[in-house]
Design brief:
- The chain has a single domain, classed as 2,3-Dihydroxybiphenyl 1,2-Dioxygenase, domain 1, CATH 3.10.180.10.
- 30% of the residues lie in helices and 29% in strands.
- It has seven helices and nine strands, in the order βαβββααβαβββααβα.
- The longest helix has 13 residues.
């Protein structure tokens, strides 16, 4: 079977101690609108994706001088690549697993099903599929109280081998909306 490739770069996730300035800068530069913001994190878009930019306020999430600062968490946290379907995401997972490449964590964020991998230098890559059929459905979800529990490093972890079997058995995409 040929390798499964992503369909697009989905979003870039930044960590900062200049949260308001970063949100304002990206709003201006990309004429982006804020889809969700709670002081600790913001999600912005400039097109039909539910978010193209995510910004984490490390002043709120990690105190200055913490272990996170020593690891250099300010800057790009990860780049996310979108796949066309759950089937593609899980087939890609299987192909990578055969080559000895497995995700560090798998999280259902509500708006997406995501697998996080680290490259040889430790750079984080998120391979994901959106859980909503339209931009409007995803944005509506992002504004619900349920969505705030699933953002940033939150969400519900899942076992990719179990989910792959469910997908292969013909489970409907809607079966994966519930966390």
């Amino acid at each position: 079977m040929p390798r499964i490739r992503p369909t697009k770069i989905a979003h870039i996730f930044y960590c900062t101690r200049r949260f308001e300035q970063m949100v304002q800068w990206y709003r201006i530069v990309f004429d982006a609108s804020v889809q969700y913001e709670d002081g600790a994190q913001a999600f912005l878009t400039y097109d039909d994706e539910h978010h193209r930019l995510a910004i984490a306020n490390m002043t709120v999430l990690e105190p200055e001088g913490s272990e996170a600062d020593k690891r250099g968490v300010i800057g790009v946290d990860h780049v996310a690549y979108a796949y066309a379907s759950l089937e593609d995401l899980f087939e890609n997972y299987a192909q990578l697993k055969e080559k000895g490449i497995v995700p560090d964590k798998c999280i259902h964020h509500g708006v997406s099903v995501s697998m996080y991998y680290a490259d040889p230098d430790g750079n984080q890559t998120e391979l994901q599929v959106s859980r909503f059929g339209t931009h409007e459905e995803a944005q509506t979800y992002m504004r619900t109280p349920d969505s705030s529990a699933n953002w940033f490093r939150h969400g519900v972890e899942f076992d990719p081998d179990v989910w792959r079997l469910r997908v292969q058995a013909g489970a409907a995409d809607s079966d994966f909306l519930t966390r």
